[in-house]
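Q: Here's a chain of 177 amino acids. Please give me its 3D structure as tokens.
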Amino acid sequence: MMSPRESTRAHGLRRFLLLGAEALIIFYLTLDALVAPVFRPLIRWLAKLRFVIRLEHLVAELPPYGILALLAIPFALAEPAKVYALFLFATGHELVGITVFVLAYFVSFVVVERVYSAGRDKLRTIGWFARLMDWLFAFRDRLIAWAKSTEAWAFFLRVKRRGAAILRRLRLRFGLG
């Protein structure tokens, strides 16, 4: 049996670790939200390729845990590579860090996204996986709602609108559409 002091210490450690895990999740979700728009056109283009459509059909034919394994492999490679890329960048290896970062996000957004998209229905038949994804999407939605409520978000929206207006005027002026 733990003494009250040991219990308090264990509770504090658990709370600290949970806060660290939450901070890590927030960091990754924020980073993903910033980088995702860069890959969206590529994802849309790839999704239309016959080769990719055939691969998606093959993935959809797999059993749920087969799809999970196929999803886990690139995810397990891409996520540590993102952290490694940040380390490289922080230690002065900017070009290598950026290259690893872009490749890791390519794998994460394109490969993982296509596998998940193809196998989503079967993956949701795995109870714990469905609950985890529901929790992650709800957490992401709460985080996005919080971010949108900040003054920083309002500032960047104003900057974005002004930039779009400037681009429209330049297109009209130079007859670019």
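Q: Can you summarize the key feature?
A: The mean pLDDT is 84.
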